[in-house]
Amino acid sequence: xxxxxxxxxxxxxxxxxxxxxxxxxxxxxxxxxxxxxxxxxxxxxxxxxxxxxxxxxxxxxxxxxxxxxxxxxxxxxxxxxxxxxxxxxxxxxxxxxxxxxxxxxxxxxxxxxxxxxxxxxxxxxxxxxxxxxxxxxxxxxxxxxxxxxxxxxxxxxxxxxxxxxxxxxxxxxxxxxxxxxxxxxxxxxxxxxxxxxxxxxxxxxxxxxxxxxxxxxxxxxxxxxxxxxxxxxxxxxxxxxxxxxxxxxxxxxxxxxxxxxxxxxxxxxxxxxxxxxxxxxxxxxxxxxxxxxxxxxxxxxxxxxxxxxxxxxxxxxxxxxxxxxxxxxxxxxxxxxxxxxxxxxxxxxxxxxxxxxxxxxxxxxxxxxxxxxxxxxxxxxxxxxxxxxxxxxxxxxxxxxxxxxxxxxxxxxxxxxxxxxxxxxxxxxxxxxxxxxxxxxx
Length: 442
Known about the structure:
Blueprint: H1 3-27, H2 40-59, H3 61-67, H4 71-97, H5 106-133, H6 138-163, H7 173-176, H8 179-188, H9 193-218, H10 237-243, H11 248-277, H12 285-289, H13 291-332, H14 336-341, H15 345-364, H16 370-399, E1 401-402, E2 405-406, H17 408-411, H18 413-429, H19 437-441
Antiparallel strand pairs: 1-2
Helix pairs in contact: 1-5, 1-6, 1-9, 2-5, 2-16, 3-16, 4-5, 4-9, 5-16, 6-13, 6-15, 10-16, 11-13, 11-16, 11-18, 13-15, 13-18, 15-16
């Protein structure tokens, strides 16, 4: 891969996940009673827009890229519209907290969020397609390219911890008694009330601006043309991708991906309140959770080496077992140091399963359905899995809650056990062929 192309792919991945990382973390609690004041169902509508878009993308946007539109041009178009809608969200939010009458109209917010998600979510598959199309050795090269997405997420989310701090209440480093105490005060002394909400509006403006930058950058990316169908029978790329689930190893992988995506989303549902319960100071919880994302950078670097030596099946099993071990440690060792340290496994969970999955999909599926094939699994990772998680885990938590006390020692064994089942399914029934399916059929 040429150096100039590699640098463009790095920038593409960085901005792709910078956008998501900029607006998502500050949005928690932003739409509810402490922020814009939308009721539970209205908040549900805003929060469900992302996973629903992942489901719709499989049937429409990914199909369009595979059959009709160059990937880099679709990326530019999507980020132009997605960026403008995100800027709209920021503008509406700022007007609402500045007391502009009528600016907190729910349907305007929903329209902006829906438009952004409908155009942004498919680009996660499209960026993978562009990256793979310009690699000579995906197993070796995808990890170092994709890790720039993780760097982008961290680069977007961490500054807001300090941007949203109430600096008027934070002592000087000397008065705080050293850097560690000062940093703890900075992380734990947040703006509050209307000032906090106004500060969070900057997250939407940041995401929107980054999206527009990526729209421009996309026009300089390597040309990745569509692959028109050879005949009407193969005109629907998403249907061609789904038909390939008749192969037992892909059907097993489809089921396992759904389980793993549900468990993965469960981590974000449980982690914040769990870490606080076991004694992690509240002002350190978000940095503690990001330990896993930092570890993800390291595992991405070594992904090619692991794949070469362990192969598809055992690499992915290790990724899933990372969830098993992490949730088991949470359940059985309620200690703040162990809870933070075991988050290092997040890097293993993501790189060794999800990133490996994307590489496998690109290698085994026909090239004329590559974006739809990526979208087929993103349908699970970003869509159906998170939707299922947002019903399953709250219901189980309710069953294991007495008063206001949650019995994590039993509750967290459910996701741990589910991940173990998925790993066993891979071990027993996942036997991918060498090369792609077209070569295997020949």
